[in-house]
Amino acid sequence: MILYDYFRSSAAYRVRIALALKGLSVKHEPIRLRRDASAQRRPEYLAKNPQGLVPALELDSGAVLTQSLAIIDYLDAVYPEPRLVPAEPILAARARAVALTIACDIHPLNNVRVTSYLETEFELREERIDAWRRHWILEGGLEAIEQSIEAAPFCFGQAVTMADVCLVPQLYNARRFGVCFAHLPKIVAVDAACADLPAFQAAHPSRQIDAE
Amino acid sequence: MILYDYFRSSAAYRVRIALALKGLSVKHEPIRLRRDASAQRRPEYLAKNPQGLVPALELDSGAVLTQSLAIIDYLDAVYPEPRLVPAEPILAARARAVALTIACDIHPLNNVRVTSYLETEFELREERIDAWRRHWILEGGLEAIEQSIEAAPFCFGQAVTMADVCLVPQLYNARRFGVCFAHLPKIVAVDAACADLPAFQAAHPSRQIDAE
Fold first, then answer.
1. Does position B129 have pLDDT exceeding 80, yes or no?
2. Is the complex ipTM higher than 0.90?
3. Residues of chain A by 3-state class (helix, strand, coil), percent to 5
4. Closest CA to B73 of A76, A157, A22, A190
5. Looking at CA atoms only, how far is residue B18 from chain A in angstroms?
6. CATH architecture, domain defined by B2-82
7. Residue-range domain boundaries for chain B
8. Nearest CB to B101: which of A67, A101, A132?
């Protein structure tokens, strides 16, 4: 399998964690989002992923899967150990809800393509974009997640789920953007528990071949 | 079950379609997002859903599920007929990817809380917000989805999937915002095929008890 990847993409980081937890090794093909903005728009890549975003996972059959949470669900179906979506439907819904809060309500408002639009089309200055990022990361985002998780020691008990796989990359982004979440003790505890696991360590942006 | 709902929320509309396809009836409890912006911020509702968004589904046990795609996956696990997430993993990943493109990359950039921020915090005028909406609905959104689906007659063949359940409400939003998608023939065909189904008709915003 080939993972079209970018070290700093928190969506790609989710998939790297899932692959590492399942012990799957893939070829990493970096798509440099910032250094070469046109890389995503190259016809060869758009033919694989019409959205031009990362991550995308190319299977050995040549089929290309897109959208990080869809890729994680695919991996969970085909390589079920360890399960990242719990088997019990209500627990699965809770883990999915945390993952989706991050993937739908926090991350899209903070990613490069959107903040670039704010800069170039709306001509907003950096401090206003920082306030925008902080607002969506905390309000209705991490602050709501804090009320939904257990931290025992992971988001939902003793096993890592899709919730942890999405939370840790979002916390990496929060730090990058200088957004403090120290007032959210359960989130801080989950982050620390995950940091001890080799799979989370191996997937960290600083450990990727394209890290700057 | 109680669905915390808002007639115009495209996320709630997705869950209404899924419930109707599965023949499930629920009590609808409208949370009026626009007329009474504070309704989402009432402590009683925040105790159920810390994000303060709709939809939320309260089960007969009192458990409350949030995030439309997590709710649809829950319904699919507990009431599997008809299946909205295909059993075959690659097809499931394709249907999920379309649903997530809408739920992560289009809808969050166009919903009320975000466009309200653009209006009030960034003091942007209506025509610039219209351009923002159009950009995210089309580019990397519906235009990418057009290349990923079959329209035969639904997004992925003869059975409705989670992709169709998310696409139709997003097209309703596109029309509301005056965004034309007539140049995307597969999307137009899927929309027409779904419009013939009683479940999609029953879930339409105009048919809800809180419709204005």
1. yes
2. yes
3. 60, 10, 35
4. A76
5. 15
6. 3-Layer(aba) Sandwich (3.40)
7. 2-82, 89-200
8. A67
